[in-house]
Amino acid sequence: RDRASRSVDLSISLEPLPDPNNRLTLSPTRKDKHGLACPDIHYDVGDYVRKGLEVVKIQLRQIGDLFDAQEFVINDKLNANNHIMGGTIMGSDPTNSVVNGNCRAHDHD
Asked: What are 26's strand-pairing partners?
C-alpha cells in the first residue's frame, strides 16, 4: 500500500498513419465451419510509430528525472489499445467499396 501511494503509471498512445498494406482480405485457403473464407489480417504499425516510440521513451525518462524516480520502467511493447476497427471499405464507388460515407451499403437504399 505504501508503494502504491507513491507510484505513477503513465500510458502513451501512438497513432499509426494510414497504410494501404494494412487490410483485411479473405483467405484463399482457410475456411470456417460453414465453408466461408476466414479473414486474413495484414497489419503493421509502420516506421512512424516505431520512431515515435523512441521519442516517447526519451520524454518519459525526462519525466522520471523531474520526479527523481528511483524505480523507473518503460514498457516499450506496442500493446493493442482495444480500438475497435472494422473490415469494410468506405467510399463513393460501389466497385471498390462496400459502404458509402454514411456507412450505408451501396446495394441497399
From this structure: 39
Q: What is the DSSP letter of 5?
A: G
DSSP 42: E
Q: Are 41 and 24 a contacting pair, CB within 8 Å? A: yes
Known catalytic membership, residue 83:
yes
CB 42 within 8 A of CB 22: yes
Q: pLDDT of 41-87, one tens digit each?
A: 888 889 999 999 999 999 999 999 998 988 888 888 887 666 656 67
- Which residues 6+ apart lie within 8 Å of 10 measured at CB? 60, 63
The dihedral formed by the CA atoms of 72, 74, 75 and 81, expressed in degrees to the nearest 10: 110
Q: Which of 34, 83, 106, 108 is catalytic?
A: 83
